[in-house]
Each structure stands twice: as C-alpha cells, then as structure tokens.
Design goal:
There is one protein chain. By secondary structure, the chain is α/β, with parallel strands linked by helices. It is about 30% helix and about 25% strand. The protein has two domains: about 1-280, no CATH class; about 290-470, no CATH class. The protein contains 14 helices and 19 strands. Strand 16 (about 405-410) and strand 17 form a beta hairpin. The longest helix is centred in the N-terminal third of the chain and has 22 residues, at about 80-100.
Length: about 500
Amino acid sequence: MRIAIGGILHETATFIDRRTSLADFERGLGLFRGDEIIKRFTGANMCPGGFIAAARRHGFDIAPLLWTFAYPSGLIDRTAYATLKAEFLDRLRQAEADGGPVDGVLLDLHGAMVVDGIDDADGDMIASVRAALGPNRPLLVTTDLHGNHTPLRVANADAIIGYDTYPHIDMAERGEEAGNLLVRMLRDGVRPRSALRQFPLFWSVKGQVTAHPPMNEVLSRAHEIERRPGILSVTVATGFPWADVPDVGASVIAVADGNVSQAQAAADELGAWIWQHRERWRAPPLGVREAIAAGEAAGKYPIVLADHADNTGGGAPGDSTEILRTFVELQLQDALLLYLVDADAALAAHTAGAGACIRVSLGGKSSPVQGPPLDVEAEVVAVTDGAFAYDGPMYAGLTGNMGRSAWLRFGGVSVVVVTVREQPFDPAFARTLGIRCDAMKYIAVKSAAHFRSGFERIAGSIYNVDARAILTHNWGSLPYRRRTRAVFPVEIRE
C-alpha cells in the first residue's frame, strides 16, 4: 500500500491589503518537496507528522509530494497558487509514473485559503486532486479548526477531519486519525460518507478555547456523537470571519460509514444545538485599560492581554501600538509586549548593539488603522538573529526564526521587536533574549488564543482585548463585499 501526502496551507485575511506571494510560502513554515517532508515532520506535531506516524503504525509506504505553509496574510496571488497546485499535481503524476498508481492521498489544508479570483481555494485544491485520482481512490483531508467549509469540499473528499483543539495541540493526532481511516477504507472496506451543516455564526475567539467552557462542551458533544455506531468522525469548524467569501462562517462536518443520511442527521443535530446556544459563543472583548484594571482588581499576575485584533497568526501586521502606548501612559512596571513586528527598529537595535540607548519610532508603520508610531528612547538589552526551538506542545519538534530581533526596554516597559510576522506560541523565543516571562507582571501577546499553549501555565489571569488594529472583532465594521448571508451577531442579533 502506497499513499501520497502533501498540502498547501494558508489562512487568508482578505481585509489585509497585502498579497501573498510564492516567496511568502517559501519564507513561512517553508516549502518542502519529496523526502524533505519526511525529514522535516517526522515526530513533529503537525498533520504530516501524523501521516508519517500512521504509515509506521500500519506499514504503508509514503509518496511525499509537496507541503507548504505561508503565514496568514492577504489574498494569495493567482499565479503563486497556480504554480504550487501545478507542482503538487505534477509530483503526484511523477510519483505514479515512477512507482505505479498510489492507493490514496492524505491532503493537508487549512480551510480558509482564498486566492485572487478563487473564493474557495481549499475546495479548488480538493477538487483538483480528486480529478487526478478519479472517483474510487481515497482522498482524506485534514483542516484547521478555523475553516470556512463548503459543499464543494465535502463532495470531493471522502472525509474532512479538522483539529479538535484551540490552541492547536492535536495536529499530529488528526493527521494520524486521517491515516488510520484511509487504511480502514483500503483494508476493511469502510466507506466514508460525509455531510455538511453550515450556520451563519461568527464565533468569538474567547469562546473557542477548547480546554474551558463553553467550547469544551461543544467538543464533548462532538465526541459523544463520534462514539455512536456507524459514525466515523465529527468536525466542528468555528470559521474565519476575516475571509470575505460567500461561505464564511461556522459549520459541522460528520462522516458515517456508508450512510450519508446518518452523517447528515449527526451534522444537523450538533449544528442545531450550536445554533440554539449561539449567545454562549459570543464574548464581547474588553478594552485595554478595562482589562488591565480587571486583572489588577483580581490581583492575579502575570496579567496576560491577548491583542487579538493584531494577531499575526490571523494575518495582521503585528505593529499596532495601542497596548504599548497604554503601558507607557500608565507607567507600568515589569510590562512586556510580544512581539512588535518592526524590522526598522530591529535593525537600529542591531546596529547600535546590546547596552546602547537608541531613539526609535516603534510600530504603526503598516497602516493608519494600526495606530501612530510610538517614539521612545530605549535601552537595547539584547539582540538575536531570531533562531529558536519551540517549547511545545504546539509546534513541538519544530524550530522557528523571527529574523533580526531585539529586546528593548524603556522605563518599566519591555518590547521584543522582530522582523518576521509570527505570534508567540510559547516563551521559548523570549527566553533566547534572556527574558523571564514568568517574572513579568503584565504581558501583551499579539495572538488570539494560540499563546495559551505555552503561556497559560504561567499566567495569573488572561483577557482578550480589542485594541485598535485591522482584525477587529467588531465584525460589523468590516467592509464585507462577497459575504452573501446575514450572520450572528452582525445582522442577526438574537
């Protein structure tokens, strides 16, 4: 048995005025071809790592094709996507020419990928692979929790298996689950039949954290349905509201063995329950000062502020300044911001060197929406070339690179300025600069929830804040053009 694996992943924030190029895929988590995929992801907490684990468990051979991931940003350039898709399909054809027909494909996607002129790029990719495989060979797809799922995808994939967790600490598990199901199809005659239930819901980030109520109740219900005879998998997708596409919103995908009616009934049951309780998934975020005051009143330190409107993990520029400015105005001590994307400031710090004092204009360079720059005189405490290894559990087994970076300090406020847009999943990179995050009283992270995988264990209290930035959670203020339906809580209020 021989299975092809690969994927093209991108979470596209269409409101970001910055196109995603082929170079962005090469610079992101990387562009890996052939055996480079095996070398990079063996033992790693990513879906390809799970595919590889399934191969070792069940003894099937792998034909690695192409896997690439660009950090979230704006619309993907049409030529860039066409180039990547063509190479993926060419590699599939070559693998079959060299070793005979593959028995199936494990395809890793995000679920919120948008290309210039293609609203449903994930659906296009699935349909293209299906056309290459024909109707009878298995095609199983893994996706992020934040997919905007469509009928096109469900019609062309035998099964779509999405992450259960947010932060995403189960990626390898879901990859292995997909591999296990594919083996059951080939060896045991299991016949997945999938069904989709969409509902017009924008799900607040705070209400998606799967370790806590209310989201843990959603997953508990999904897992209860999965234990029923005949049900193979249930995926809850909370959607990605910053992709302006017709099918934006939450959904449930259920997969049953040979029975599409059973799958549809399961998807409808869970989807109806989620919709009935839609008020529970709405969590209006706090303002910055309001959150700080709440944390100080509780007296639980460090107070962690999730700057989710400038979440680089969702495609934001990462250079908004409202929280940093508030830290300075309140004259806070032991306050830290992770990370401010400002290549100019990082270069100035490196040029001056550790121990120097520099006059620098921080942030606010990408868009007026991100707020004005903050002019400060700062001490350069430490500099780094940006290389580090993740602590995990998210991205466990992988390394990263923030590019030229520095720790700047002025008064009681510290900020890590970086060159590469990436959210802080854990304290590992800060530690390379000599920063002890657990010794801080206030920590702001340009992240919505993934930071919890590494920071929740040291946090005294956590607050999501909607500071001034492009990816605001005030969805009614976003200039949708292609969304075709009313959603809760924008047009539908109750």
